Amino acid sequence: MKIVVAIKQVPDRDAPVRIDASGKWIEESGLQFAMNEPDAYALEEALRLKEAQGGEVIVLSAGPERVGTTIREALAKGADRAIHITADDLGTRDALGVAKLIAEAIKPESPDLILTGLQSEDLGLGQTGVILAELLNLPHASLILHVEATGTGLKVKRELEAGWFQEIELPTPAVLTIQSGGNKLRYATLMGIKKAKTKEFRAVSAADLGQSSAPTVTLGQIALPSKQRSTQILSGSAKEAAAALVEKLKFEARII
Amino acid sequence: MSAIFVILEENGGHISRISWEALAAGTALAEQTSLPLHAVVIGSSTEALAAEAAAKQVAAVIRIEHALLNAYTPDGWTSALHQFLTANPATYVIFPHTYQVRDYAPALAARMNQVLIGDVTGIAAGPVFTRQLLQGRLNGSYKHASDGPCFVSVQAGAFRADALAVGSASVTTFAPTIEPSQIRTKPGAPFRASAQTVDLSSAPLIVSVGRGIKEADNLPLVQDLAAALGAELAASRPICDNGWLPMERQVGSSGQTVAPKLYLAVGISGAIQHLVGMKASQCIVAINKDPDAPIFEVADYGIVGDLFEVVPALTEAIKSAK
Questions:
Q1: Are residues A182 and A251 in the same domain?
Q2: Does the beta-carbon distance from A168 to B187 stay under 8 Å?
């Protein structure tokens, strides 16, 4: 099975965020980046399918040069080769604009399966995989925890709300968006990291893919959220704060 | 004439609560734009759903009905709504932000060369749509910049369903053309993984643990705190994803929704998927090392500090207070 996994590099979740001077995005200088976690689960599912079925895993990511480190990490974990869509202006494209770039880069590969995480930890749009399916005219299923190849196609386990699940059968080629938690993530081994350096790493520029269109949705300003409740912050040492909290819960909130 | 269409969803034979909230968002937009507000129901048998919708203050209710819309499939829903919206020009199409909508609305919007503005928490004059970024650490203001329809999905709890006025709208039916071969996925019946043995929704006190606990070996810290309080132990998604606690203890959009007297969040940053599952709690306490963590937006009491120092101190303080 030939599998393409679309991954995204996002700001590390513990990195402090500061709004930049434009007020439209966060200050990226000095920021730590990491592989988007649901995409790491998509990669894991792809690697497991390859180990069970044979085939090839191609990792694909769009973004500026820094994205290369996340692609290398995927290669070190076991992806066979990589495609980097180099673009410094992804922030000016909407979800459809980015998905068009990815779709163009995937087309010549004609994969059996395209996997991606269900959403990114930065923009959180949760749309790229579903739009890709539409652009490539492929069937899709989203929020998938488990994938099984059936010979004629796929049987997948889809997460529904409030603890419910559903099985879905669909033919290949197909697009699946992967929910986190379906597998245990692997770490890159030293051998894997060494091998990654020799693997094919192809860069294609967004301009070469020829997909530029005016966005239909634009992000204007970003801002810190306003508080929904007024929080009393209890300060002091751990012991003092704990004692103050017990006082509050006992005499103010009257809960304990 | 152009209109606002609100796509309602069914749950347990009735219009779902979050669909009514989407209708409330549509009502707010109708007031702002003076456009007529229409409600849309979809399925193979929609008469009862349409009657429910027609009892609200809307200009009209449309039943999109076809035998192949018996069970939800992204192909069926996308094709039916695409045909409907091609025949009936929309200025705004509003959805509840559910797992089902997330599954097809981005494709529907793309088919019409548009992009869904998803998971919206507020609509201001303009209209400007607010949605969260970076797991709730920031808000972003989005605008639609195209002549085509503007697709919007609204987050659970963001609009007030109980403010909807009653009415008596006319109901019409739209029959899309769908061939069986167009439905490429075969959905199975929904099931639960296993019998739920923990009912967090009835627990009066909940101690909930998140990524801040760092590793499974540290869980006894929060277990001791829960025991001292007489509280149930719950967790955010990553803890259950790692298998440190069973899935049935997960609070959030994919787990249980709770509203206890006390929700004590330990090392939980408060991504939106978690907040929707617990923000209705009577009293929320957050312990987190990051003063900017979104959990503090909904907390009544907060301690900014190292949970590995604060939690044992709190356990001791509770024990001696009892």
A1: no
A2: yes
Residues A51 and A146 in one domain: yes
Tell me the percentage of chain B whose pLDDT exceeds 70.
99
The ipTM estimated for the assembled molecules is: 0.91
Which among B107, B128, B313 has the least Cβ separation from residue A242?
A: B313
Residues of chain A with Cβ-Cβ distance to B136 below 8 Å are 225
Return d(Cα B58, Cα B38) in angstroms, integer: 6
Chain B contact set for A222 (CB, 8 A): 133, 138-141
pLDDT > 90? residue A139: yes
Closest C-alpha among B204, B151, B107, B141 to residue A129: B107
**pLDDT confidence of B170, banded at 50, 70, 90?**
very high
Q: In terms of residue numbers, what domain contains B253?
A: 200-321
Domains in chain B: how many in total? 2
Interchain contact A34–B (C-beta under 8 A)? no
- Mean pLDDT estimate for chain B: 93
Domain harbouring A190, CATH code: 3.40.50.620
Q: Is residue A214 part of a domain?
A: no
Instruction: Write the CB contacts of A99 (distance below 8 Å, at least 6 apart in sequence).
Output: A127, A128, A131, A132, A135, B110
Which residue of B301, B308, B310 is the best one to mutate when testing the A interface, meaning the one whose CB has the most A CBs within 10 A?
A: B301
B179 CB-near residues (< 8 Å, 6+ apart) = none
> Which residues 85-144 of B are in CB contact (within 8 Å) with A?
98-99, 102-104, 106-107, 109-111, 113-119, 128, 131-144
Provide the pLDDT for residue B152. Answer: 98
pLDDT digits (tens, 9 = 90+) for A190-235: 999 999 999 999 999 998 898 677 899 999 899 988 777 789 999 9
Q: Chain B residue with minimal CA distance to A226?
A: B297
Predicted confidence (pLDDT) per residue in B264-285, tens digit = 999 999 988 899 889 889 999 9
Q: Are residues A135 and A250 in the same domain?
A: no
pLDDT band at B1 (very low <50, low <70, confident <90, very high): low
